[in-house]
Amino acid sequence: MWIKVCGAILFGLILILLVMDLLVLDSVYDSNGRAIEHAIDSGIIRSGIVTDAQQGLIQLEQNTLRAATIQAFIQSQRLSAAMENPIMKDSSFELKLIYDSSDVPWIDVVFRTHVSFALPGVQYPVTIHRNIPYESIYK
User: What is the mean pLDDT of the chain?
Assistant: First the structure.
């Protein structure tokens, strides 16, 4: 009888820990996704070069865009210089500026991290991908 009770309590505790980890994973995914979108906006503002103000033509400088976006992301998420905090470890941030066939620049960001919360030995990989077009001509 006591073994069944102890087993049920242990099963319930493990279930609670897994649910807590699931909630933290969802929160990390949502908050980092929004932070990436805001960081891209910040990077666009900092790296925009006005080539023709009369026509509203603005170009993006890729290295400045990358540096400004990473800096804004780290600042908004309160991460260390290695992009880590007590919950997220082994993080990487990749930004590419890609032009499609009609010369519209697309800002492609992939953020990878490992999340660990309730169970210290268990890490869950999280990949957040954002692909945002930048319409540089305003009419």
Answer: 86
